[in-house]
Amino acid sequence: MTDSPILARRLARLTELLARHQSLWRPEPFQHLTPPWAEAFPDLRAALLALGEERLARLQAEPFIDSPLVEWLPVAELEALCALPELAPRPEPLPEAWSQHVGGRKWRQIEAFLPRVRLAPGEAALEWCAGKGHLARALARRHGGEVLALEWDPALCAAGEALAQAQGLAVRPIRQDVMAPEAARRLTRATHACALHACGDLHRRLLEAAAAAGSAVTLAPCCYQRTAAAHYRPLSRAAGALMVEHGLALSRDDLALAVQETVTAPRGVRRQRHRAGAWRLGFDRLQRELRGVDAYLPVPSLAYGRMPACFAAFCRWAAAQKGLSLPAGLDWALLEAEGWRRQAEVARLETLRHLFRRPLEVWLALDRAAFLAEAGYAVELGTFCLRELTPRNLLIRGRPAWS
Questions:
Q1: Are 390 and 109 in contact (CB under 8 A)?
Q2: Is residue 214 classed as helix, strand or coil in its secondary structure?
Q3: Which of 204, 222, 230, 274 could bond 197 through an S-S bridge, CB–CB 3.0 to 4.6 Å?
Q4: Starting from the edge strand earliest in sequence, which strands make up the sheet with 216-222, in order?
Q5: What is the DSSP string of 173-203?
Q6: What is the number of other CB atoms lying within 10 angstroms of the CB of residue 315?
């Protein structure tokens, strides 16, 4: 999608819809025993809680299809506003040798992203937040010439340099904090900056630096919630004005909704995740009773491999983290059963938030596209791969209109 007026209208309409329905999508069901909107929309809550397992699974994968929310929300319009074109050209398989030392899924993402990088004559590619420089090496192979790879972690820089040397590629890893002022000085009008899934503030900084330098940019943004700001600061003047006009405010937690969709994990991981969620909700009910406070109490994350062996042990660990004393004689079986019941309930109520997951992500990408357009760029917004490869499949391409 390259028409700036169309992008602007889409940004405006999505802002209006996100703001109008924010009382429904912003509350996180796991934090509330009863959703804050339940009294105003009792039939909506009943409809969600009545979802069977099969339909629930379909809605978790495809929130817009056969949605029970059509009676209350503009489902079809939200779906249409999220429909973006696949940015040509369609990728073709790259030589297998190029994928050496790159994980399978990561390589397929690079394989899809690489053809979307269009270097103009005389432009040099630069990878922003390069890690081991997997994308940089692919860029060097495809386009020739030296490719800079900016990465702050010295171990990753060293690994990237060793891989480039072993493969005889003109990739120059540079240890660089991309948030530091000197990073922006590496961008010029002859630079084409690329980033595949740079997170939050890191890709914001790329867009700001590219716009200031007049660099072309190809970006797949990711993890919008990884930002130092507690509340979202729009990049574009257009988004900022629309947020004020419609009363839309976004917290860091709200931004996390945009990236909640994940590629299906292996069955064992899904089972562990499911159990961890039920245990946390079981402990949540317990801590409310112990404290006499009907409010959610965040508990630190714990890697699945480090989860205690049973629910009671998990609750003892969680209580210790929050300085709570557990009384003797607790009915652990009853509390765990309550956790599983709550998890089934939360999963159904979450389908309401899932409906706004992609609209919010597209809105955030539109804000970034509008920022570049306001800086005098010709901008494209679309997708670079199927969501089955990565749900973070949005791509922003920008080039100064004067170049």
A1: yes
A2: coil
A3: 222
A4: 171-175, 147-151, 124-128, 191-199, 216-222, 394-400, 377-383
A5: EEE--TTSHHHHTT--TTEEEEEEEEEHHHH
A6: 25
How far apart are alpha carbons 236 and 183 in whole angstroms?
22
For residue 309, count other CB atoms closer than 10 A to its CB.
7
Residue with tokens 């409010």: 295
Q: How far apart are CA 166 and CA 174, in angstroms?
A: 17
What length does the chain have? 403
- What pTM was estimated for this model as a whole? 0.94
d(CA 196, CA 109): 8
Are 195 and 128 in contact by the 8 Å Cβ rule? The answer is yes
Task: Please answer whether residues 87 and 115 qualify as being in contact, where contact means their C-beta atoms are separated by less than 8 angstroms.
Answer: no
121 prior amide bond cis, ω within 30: no
Backbone angles phi, psi at 271, to 5 degrees: -65, -45
DSSP string, 91-127: P-PPPGGGGTTS-HHHHHHHHHHGGG--PPTT-EEEE
Retrieve residue 160's tokens.
């990237």
CA distance linking residue 308 with residue 79, whole number of Å: 41
Which DSSP string corresponds to 48-62?
HHT--HHHHHHHHH-
> 398 - beta bridge partners?
217, 379
Distance CA 402, CA 95 (A): 35
Q: What is the pLDDT along the chain (403 residues), one digit of tens a residue?
A: 556 788 999 999 999 999 999 999 999 999 999 999 999 999 999 999 999 999 999 999 999 999 999 999 999 999 999 999 999 767 678 899 999 999 989 999 999 999 999 999 999 999 999 999 999 999 999 998 899 999 999 999 999 999 999 999 999 999 999 999 999 999 999 999 999 999 999 999 999 999 999 999 999 999 999 999 999 999 999 999 999 999 999 999 999 999 987 666 677 777 888 999 999 999 999 999 999 999 999 998 876 668 899 999 999 999 999 999 999 999 999 999 999 999 999 999 999 999 999 999 999 999 999 999 999 999 999 999 999 999 999 999 999 987 6
- For residue 325, the 8-state DSSP code is P
Rounded CA-CA distance 265/271 in Å is 10
Q: Please give the structure tokens belonging to residue 75.
A: 């489902």
Q: Are strands 216-222 and 394-400 parallel, antiparallel or unpaired?
A: antiparallel
